[in-house]
Every structure is written in structure tokens, then in C-alpha cells.
Specification:
Layout (H helix, E strand, L loop, with lengths): L2 H9 L4 H27 L5 H25 L6 H23 L8 H23 L4 H9 L5 H35 L1
InterPro entries: CDP-alcohol_PTase-I, CDP-OH_P_trans, CDP-OH_PTrfase_TM_dom, CDP_ALCOHOL_P_TRANSF_CS, Phosphatidylglycerol_P_synth
GO cellular component, one term: membrane
Family: Belongs to the CDP-alcohol phosphatidyltransferase class-I family.
């Protein structure tokens, strides 16, 4: 979680070295997150706090990555799409915390796993592209010309739609659990 704001602050700079360092920080954060969870499960040293903190750390890093994108090109990566992704991810994380505190388990759907995979592929591609665009000369111009194709824009629309859909599906599948819990607390 501590690496996410450092990554964000370095990435939004228009300096090739700072942006390159930020990508290394992002990669290290993602890899350590993966191996941390893998080792904890393999050696059965998972804690309730770790199970809670791991997805939260994922969200911080992912949100930091998405927040960087409009700084590259607000036309390709519109703020409204970023806001929808952040609201969905924080909302579902908040519901997970709510459920966990009541010893309930939210059902996960395959769409959530697909959403995560698509978000990560898109995010890593867009962040790498944002680094490459800083190169000078013909290569930099060639990379910048990709923006004119609106591929990132339509990719952002697709990622946002999938993200919002998976959030709605989470709510629909788990609604009885929350309605029942709310009725008990009334």
C-alpha cells in the first residue's frame, strides 16, 4: 500500500526516468503482493488481517494506476470512467469488509476474476504505453500516433463496462445476504 502513492507521484511526472522508476515500483509492488499471498497460502500462515489487507493493497495499487491514466491523455482515459471503476472497486471492497465483520462470505463470480484480468492487462499496457510515449524522435512520434486511433479510449470504455457489470452482479448475487443482515440489525 505504501508503494502506491509513490508510484502515482512519480508516474504523473513528464520525465522519462521518473516514469521508468515508477513502473519498476509498480512491478515490484504487484510481484510482492502476488508472492506474499502465494507464500501465505502455501505455508498456511494466513491471518485474518492479511486476508483483509491483501485485496485492499491490490485496490490501492490498481486505483493508483487508473488515476495516472487521465494525466497521459484525458481524451483517451476520461475521468468519468476512472471514477466509475474506483467507485465500483471501493464499493465492493467496503461490502466485503462489512460482510467479513459479520462473519459472512460474499460469493465471488467468474465475472469478477475476468474483470480483474482484463483490468490488469489493460492497465499494464496503458502504463507501459505512457512510458514509451516519452521517448523522443521517430519512435516517440510513432507511439504518440496510436492515440489518434482511439484504441485506448474504446478499451477504457470496455474495461469500465466490464467493471460496472461485475459490480452489479456482485450486488445481485449477494443481495439476500445484505437484506437479511440489514433486517436483523433493524
Amino acid at each position: 500500500m505504501a508503494m502506491a502513492p509513490v508510484f502515482l507521484l512519480l508516474y504523473i511526472q513528464d520525465d522519462i526516468w521518473l516514469r521508468g522508476i515508477s513502473l519498476v515500483i509498480f512491478a515490484v509492488a504487484a510481484l510482492t503482493d502476488f508472492f506474499d499471498g502465494y507464500i501465505a497460502r502455501k505455508y498456511r500462515v494466513e491471518s485474518k488481517f492479511g486476508i483483509f489487507l491483501d485485496p485492499l493493497a491490490d485496490k490501492f495499487l490498481t486505483i493508483a494506476g487508473f488515476v495516472c491514466l487521465p494525466f497521459l491523455s484525458p481524451e483517451q482515459f476520461p475521468w468519468w470512467a476512472i471514477v466509475l471503476i474506483v467507485i465500483r472497486d471501493l464499493g465492493i471492497t467496503g461490502l466485503r469488509i462489512f460482510a467479513d465483520r459479520r462473519n459472512l462470505t460474499m460469493q465471488t463470480r467468474s465475472s469478477a476474476k475476468v474483470k480483474t484480468a482484463i483490468q490488469m492487462i489493460y492497465l499494464y499496457t496503458a502504463l507501459l504505453f505512457g512510458f514509451l510515449v516519452l521517448f523522443g524522435g521517430g519512435f516517440g512520434e510513432m507511439v504518440r500516433s496510436v492515440y489518434e486511433l482511439d484504441l485506448f479510449y474504446w478499451g477504457m470504455i470496455a474495461v469500465t463496462a466490464i467493471t460496472v457489470y461485475s459490480g452489479i452482479e456482485y450486488l445481485a448475487v449477494n443481495r439476500k445476504m445484505f437484506v437479511t443482515t440489514a433486517g436483523k440489525n433493524a
